[in-house]
Amino acid sequence: MATRHFIHDGATLVQDALHGLALSNPSIRYDDDIKAIINPRHDGDKQVTLISGGGAGHEPSFVGLVGDGLLSAAVSGFIFASPSVHQIQNTIARVGGSAGTLLVIMNYTGDVLHFHLAAEKARLAGFNTAVLVVGDDVSVGRQKSGKVGRRGLAGTVLVEKILGALAQQGMALEELRQAGEEVVNSLATVGAALDHVHLVGKPADPTDRTDQVEVGMGIHNEPGCYVVKPQPSISDLVDQMLDKLLDPDDADRAYVSFTDTNLCLLVNNLGGVSNIEFSAVTKTVVDRLDRRGLKPIRIYSGSFMTSLDGKGFSITLLKASPQMLEALDAPAITPGWSTRPRPDVDEHDLKTSIERACYKLIAAEAELDRYDSVVDWVQAAGEALQALRQATSARAGDRTIMDALEPFITALQAGASAAGAVDAARAGRNSTQGMTASFERAVYVPEEGWSRVPDPGAAGLVCLLEGLLSP
Predict the structure, then answer these.
(1) Residue ranges making up the domain that contains 311
(2) Looking at the keywords, is Iron-sulfur present (predicted)?
(3) Is the pLDDT of residue 356 over 70?
(4) Core-most of 34, 169, 232, 420, by most CB within 10 Å?
């Protein structure tokens, strides 16, 4: 067992950490039934409810950003794993009100799916909900990211700070969502790290990664643009990162055209860089921007979105409108803001894949109690598939769970027996071996890995269906 941590039980770590956060901050409340941090002063009938969340391991995001002028609540999954639909839906029910609820999430497939399904179930229960997906990472680029789009990174914190202030000013739900889209379209982020992070309770990675830097590595260990070896000077490294953010001729990554008049800078510590070193990194970023004729009018520096013990940092640039600047300057009451202006596949990953498969199969769960025959159940499965297609653009052929799910339901609709439909799902699963990935973290792994195994989500669904058929 690795001994790099004081606590080695990853299963209890998240709950204990959330308890500890609430114990040290009497202005927030921890709801242990749904693993959510809640602002008890928020009134969902008077202003839009802002809920965010995702996998644990990125603290203070998102649970440390709950407070007046920021998030109304944040729901946490296990480390690097999305919270469940049940958690999210119950958080909406407990915190939301008649003013509506906006779910602000990072662009990762599990979060996108679970939060969209929870929003749909909440709508059926009478809650007015909307979802804003934040993608700000430019490291992978348009060609590589394909249908996935930009990954969510530290720019999400700026989105939530701006929307929190606008919600407090009384902005309506749809206006708030549109304002959020404007902020997302004005953001660009790139990161760099010296090493992959170490997951609590897992053996340490023995790979020697000394004297190198990975430019563009994601906050879950996803690969970035490239590895630089030997490690460059901090000035050279920052210049390479700024090239990814600022080069207008890079058609793959030029998402935003930045100017000197309205530039905001956020330098984010991934968690493992010492304070003294990180302050020097911030100065270097400002100096290198100055050499390019860019002087940020707002500078934020600190640990806003971490990656466990990741020794790295990210740079976020925001092309800010006057409304955004006013919102950024608005006061917010939360320790997370006021005091701090590629994991290996294991059994938990498999559990997560199967859990997602279950949620996808019962996307129309709220309607299932009116179906009591095989014909009706097939109809329900078809409606569930349609609901799922509204939450994701993934389709068969993208190397996802859809490669098994779509042929399974299609076979049922065509009159196949349950066993025949499972055979169709198996064939769909097998077809993913060697298939180019278009979604989830498989997009970011080396292509030679795709030929070794079928898609884990499709494989998990087949295991679930085979279990349902077993006597």
Answers:
(1) 187-338
(2) no
(3) no
(4) 34
